[in-house]
């Protein structure tokens, strides 16, 4: 298996390091609508890959979308990421929000060793109508290919 540091360590990295900060550590959006998260970083990290992941259990995270180190926007399933290297801010947009999107997510910067990460709590507003039927599926993990599964401590493969 892959050894990964505990989440508490990663939270410490995010809170005690000014290298990477989330503009807001909690964001909310309307069901069926969209929300935007902005994460800022210090000079020197412009060409590093930036990522957005969903925490699935203690210290494990699914990368939902990741840049290639450029400013080119990258789109995933209902989520996109774009890095503005002049402003040193990358922006994540989540669209067509669902109730089961509410969770803990992380902004991150890829680096050798343990990546930099900062937690962002996402909540979904009920909006004008609220209809809850049955149990929400948590099968989003199964819909991701194994090649897109990463832990915070990246194992780089060719």
| Distance N to C terminus | 18 Å
Report mean pLDDT, rounded to a whole number.
76
| CATH classification, class level | Mainly Beta
In CATH terms, what is the architecture?
A: Sandwich
CATH superfamily: Immunoglobulins
Radius of gyration: 15 Å
Helix content: under 10%
| Strand line-up of the largest beta sheet | 2-10-9-4-5-11
SSE succession: HEEEEEEEEEEE
Structural class: mainly beta
Q: How much strand content do the residues show?
A: 35-45%
**Might you state the CATH topology name?**
Immunoglobulin-like
Total number of strands: 11
Largest sheet properties = 6 strands, mixed
Subcellular location: Membrane
Domain Ig-like: 5-123
GO cellular component, one term: plasma membrane
Protein name: Ig-like domain-containing protein
Description:
One of its GO terms (molecular function) is transmembrane signaling receptor activity. It holds the Pfam family V-set. The protein is mainly beta. The chain has one domain: Sandwich (Immunoglobulin-like). Helices cover 6% and strands 41% of the residues. It has 1 helix and 11 strands. It has a 6-stranded mixed β-sheet. Strand 7 and strand 8 (89-94) form a beta hairpin. The longest helix has 10 residues, at 7-16.
What's this entry about, in short?
One of its GO terms (molecular function) is transmembrane signaling receptor activity. The chain has 158 residues and is mostly beta strands. It has one domain: Sandwich (Immunoglobulin-like).
